[in-house]
Structure formats: structure tokens, C-alpha cells
TrEMBL record:
It comes from the Bacteria. This is DoxX family protein. Keywords: Membrane, Transmembrane, Transmembrane helix. The chain crosses the membrane at residues 9-27, 47-67, 74-97.
Amino acid sequence: MSNTQKMEWALRIGVAGEFLGHGLLGLQGKADWIKWIMQLTHVSNPTAHTLLLIVGAADILVALIVLIKPINWVLLWAVFWGFWTALVRPLVGVGWLDFIERFANWGAPLALYYFYQINKK
């Protein structure tokens, strides 16, 4: 395996791991996230729980696509979603340091997207 292939797989595994982990936490109904959804959208607890289940399933789907066959628009979605979910922390009062700590959540899919743009065949 070439160094380029190793770099690609390191990025793919990193992005997939992040989205798989978040997806599984979403399916488990992480209490803080339900509270944040309610705070930002003003929906009821059952609705927030349903939304979190949908988001969790979508995150797992992103992880699988990145591992099996990355698609550019899915990577760009991952960039947007990773940035948004990091930004949620200061928006709900957790703090800006928690946003900064999560730069890899959107930086890794962005790096993978640009990796594919540079290495187009």
C-alpha cells in the first residue's frame, strides 16, 4: 500500500469513526443532545428524541458511505454537519472552547474531500 493510500484510509477511518460514534450515541438518545434539540428548535421531548434517532441513523449512513465508497456530496455534508454540531455547543451555552475542540469533526471530512479533488484520475 502506497503512502497516498495509507493517508486516504487514515482519513476515511477517522471520518467514519467520528460519524459512527456520534450516530450510535444519537440512536441511544444522548440526553444532552435531546435537551439541545429542544432548546434550539422548541420541539417537545418525544419530537426531539425522534429527530435525534433520524440524525443518528444518518450519521451511521455517512460513516458507511465514507468507508465503502466516498461520495463528494456526502463528504461536503459531513463538513457542514461536523461544523454545525460543533457550533451547537456555544449556541446552547456550553462554550466556545468546546467548538474549537471539535475542529476535526469538520476538518477531517474537508481534508478527505480535498484529497480526492487533488488526486482525481
